[in-house]
Amino acid sequence: MASLSSSYRSRLPVGRSLACLALAVLGLTGRPSHAAGSTLLQDLRPGHDATPGTNGPLTSLGNTVYFAGQSTSTGSEVWKSDGSPEGTVLVKEVLPGPESANPSLFGELNGSLFFTARGSTLGTELWKTDGTPTGTVRLLSVPNGEIPTDVAITDHARVGNTLFFSAQLSGNKELWKTDGTPAGTARVKDIAPGDIGSFPYSLTALGSSLYFAATPSGTWPSSLWKSDGTEAGTVEVWSPPSPGGVQGVNELGGSLLVRVTSSAYPVSSLWKSDGTAAGTVKVVDLPYEVRKSVVLGNRLVIWMDGAMWVTDGTAAGTRALQLVSHASWHPSVTVGSQLFFLGTDSSHGLELWTTDGTPSGTRLVKDLLPGAVDGALPTMAMAALDGACTSWARTPRAPSSCGRRMAPRPAP
Predict the structure, then answer these.
(1) Max Cα distance, the chain (Å)
(2) In what order do the strands lie in the sheet with 280-286?
(3) For 58-87, what is each residue's pLDDT tens digit?
(4) d(CA 104, CA 309)
């Protein structure tokens, strides 16, 4: 769906902008899957002006999209949508009344979606939902005032029947796990004891183990760690040569690709690992620091200072794709063999792009606002649903629709 910039909204003949949820579907070719014109599914805040970020990011689970929706009667709570007006409903009021629970969705395990929220204890609580009121239950509660109530969980990975995540739920940020039960929700290990925190990130599953980057001293540089879910089995695997530190970890083809950044030249390098120190070897030096990376099939797509690259884990297979950046704060969405992301280049503002990992398959989906003007709002959200890229955004309410569908730019 077209996300409209403030300059474009000011030119539209409408009285005010409204907060609404509108879903638009882009097929694998980027073409709309239905007739032109988007459908208003729910006007969550009737008669109220919209604000950026009123509704949270989209998270897909099966054939349903979940999001943090804000209405005047319930505040911000967990909603879900199957793409129809009647299927766009509030799941459950975690914090009953008009006050906001401010849910933050982050991971899936065995058919349930996990999220943090401000619940009846008024502190941070860990919840899960299967999309029903009775299946939306609290797993963990942190006393009010012990930690901030708006701490989002952004790093997580599923290994077997365990969901690992990095969280500040007791002391500082450390590695946690849950099996979906209150008894099975606990901190794995206090890697940096006390109030320092090891700040685990880039959580990645490989086989039956979890791999991640962490700072055992609480300060840079980070090293590569692994965990089997027990305190004793959570150990450091490898430290990059000084003065380098682990920037990120991805799984590709049964191996780990470890990105290392350094204060000395070369500033960035790519390493391949089998999960052991002896089996961790350098693949190639990179010209710039990696800003973002996403696995797409048998390739890793990476963005470095306005340049988009791809690698198959070999030096010969590491090459530049196109000069386009990725909005670092915005998640990408994989649909089949295509990756959708918000990006900019020298000729366009923030717009929706797609890539299949090849130069010819990397293209602008549509230039919503020609030139350097942003055609997509920074708060635009996307999710994969039914083999398509689904998005919502704040749009001016027009008599016939709440938003617009995009027609793609033909592939070169």
Answers:
(1) 65
(2) 244-252, 255-262, 268-273, 280-286
(3) 788 888 889 888 888 888 999 998 878 888
(4) 31
* 188 close to 227: Cβ distance less than 8 angstroms: yes
The H or E element containing residue 192 is none
End-to-end, the C-alpha distance of the chain in Å comes to 22
How far apart (Å, rounded) are the C-alpha atoms in residues 167 and 357?
33
What is the rounded distance in angstroms from the CA atom of residue 218 to the CA atom of residue 212?
15
**8 A C-beta contact, residue 124 and residue 142:** yes
Measured in degrees and rounded to the nearest 5, phi and psi for residue 9 equal -60, -35
Do 110 and 52 meet the contact criterion of CB atoms below 8 Å apart? no
More confident site: 222 or 11? 222
Confidence of residue 235 (pLDDT cuts 50, 70, 90): very high
Closest listed residue to residue 357, CA positions, set 289, 282, 299: 299
- In degrees and rounded to multiples of 5, residue 406 shows phi and psi of -100, 135
Name the 3-class secondary structure at 141.
strand
In the prediction, which pLDDT does 142 show?
Answer: 78
Closest C-alpha to 193, from 174, 206, 207: 174
Which of 273-282, 288-297, 338-347, 386-395 has maximum average pLDDT?
Answer: 273-282
Environment class of 161 (CB within 10 Å of its CB; exposed 0-12, middle 13-18, buried 19+): exposed
Tokens of 202: 């880039």
The reported pLDDT for the residue numbered 9 is 28
| Confidence category of residue 147, pLDDT binned at 50, 70, 90 | low
Contact call for residues 25 and 33 (beta carbons, < 8 A): yes
Secondary structure of residue 7 in the 3-state scheme = helix
